[in-house]
Write a structure and sequence with these properties.
The complex is a heterodimer of chains A (236) and B (103). Chain A has 236 residues and is an all-alpha fold. Chain A has helices at residues 12-21, 23-43, 47-57, 60-68, 76-87, 89-96, 98-101, 106-112, 118-129, 136-159, 174-185, 190-209, 215-229, and one strand spanning 73-75. Helix content of chain A is 70%, strand content 1%. Chain B has a domain at 65-103. Classes of the chains: A mainly alpha (236), B mainly alpha (103).
């Protein structure tokens, strides 16, 4: 893996290509942004506040969760705990890109992480498993998803939900199917399959018996532990 | 400790949410800069990476309706057979819509 230790240069044309590559998936992000925008104004946020939240937070599940906690007053610590728990998977996602990210200067490294989200990370992680370094997708793919999330929020705020029932069309499954196709598109080995089994079992155990929103981190760490104790021969 | 949802209060809520989320986006990479990347650690983060996806998807399948399960199953089969993500995702989503039309 000697190619993986040379310095990393972000290529502007590849950033643009990754922007276009994630454009189709970001159309679905628009639909969910609209659902968020509608829910936000119905909760009592102004259009400006709703859009500001989407622009600044850019993490859909946690934004919906905070709307659920809305009232005349919001308890700060529980709100912070819920946002942190839902978004804690970012910690692991960022860490998994560290071997590539450390080759960028700190300003760029932490700059592109502003755009880190599930879909663009999944592409970068899959490419890395297949021996390709692709941080351009974090920036380019993240930018298109971020724009789609903002556009969707604005549409929802001003025009209501775009679709009466996105679930009927199966649109709630787009992200799940996307992430699954990324997982299965990477290299698999007996070690990976054992890690996935452990990860899935741990995630379900956490889902049923641990506090809410902890299952992703618990499952991922359990899967990672398999890798820690079981080294592939060509890696050692 | 609570915040009133006045104009200023809501801004404070948004700032707090942003900072907490930013800490998650930056924190993992920041902490890793203190870790020596041994082959064992590299194996850990590589295995963890795809395990994140599995840990998101498995509860989705368990807790989801029949449409959700068939969607994931269809996508999985299509990716394994075709090796192409886009048709696999489209087939999965179509399967969810179709299933929900009849159930």
């Amino acid at each position: 893996m000697s190619t993986l230790s040379t310095p990393y240069q972000l290529q502007p044309d590849r950033v643009r290509a990754e922007f276009l590559r994630l454009l189709p998936i970001s159309l679905f992000v628009v639909a969910f942004g609209a659902a968020f925008g509608l829910a936000a104004v119905q909760t009592g946020l102004t259009p400006f506040q709703s859009s500001l939240m989407s622009v600044a937070v850019f993490a859909g599940a946690s934004q919906f969760a905070v709307l659920d906690m809305w009232g005349p007053e919001i308890a700060i610590l529980p709100m912070m705990a819920v946002v942190f728990a839902i978004n804690s998977r970012h910690l692991l996602m960022g860490a998994s890109l560290y071997p590539m990210l450390k080759q960028l200067p700190p300003l760029k490294r932490y700059g592109i992480l502003l755009f880190l989200t599930d879909a663009n990370w999944a592409v970068a992680a899959q490419d890395y498993q297949n021996g390709k370094r692709n941080l351009e997708v974090i920036l380019g793919g993240g930018a298109v998803i971020w724009l789609a999330w903002l556009v969707g929020t604005l549409l929802g705020v001003y025009f209501g939900g775009l679709l009466d029932d996105p679930q009927r069309l199966g649109l709630d499954m787009v992200l799940g199917c996307f992430l699954l196709s990324m997982a299965l598109g990477g290299k698999t080995s007996p070690r990976i399959l054992v890690a996935w089994t452990v990860s899935g079992a741990a995630a379900m155990a956490a889902f049923w018996w641990l506090p809410p929103h902890t299952h992703v981190v618990v499952g991922a760490l359990a899967g990672g532990a398999v890798g820690y104790f079981w080294l592939e021969r060509d890696e050692s | 400790m609570t915040i009133e949802t006045t104009t200023t209060g809501i801004l404070v809520v948004i700032v707090i949410m942003s900072l907490v989320t930013l800490a998650t986006r930056w924190g993992g990479v920041y902490l890793m800069s203190y870790v020596r990347i041994s082959p064992r650690i590299e194996s850990f983060i590589n295995t963890m990476a795809s395990s994140v996806l599995i840990a998101i998807i498995v509860p989705m399948a368990f807790e989801g309706d029949l449409g959700a399960r068939l969607a994931l199953f269809t996508t999985a089969m299509m990716v394994v057979v075709l090796k192409k993500p886009l048709p696999a995702i489209a087939a999965g989503v179509a399967m969810a819509a179709l299933t929900r039309m009849f159930w």
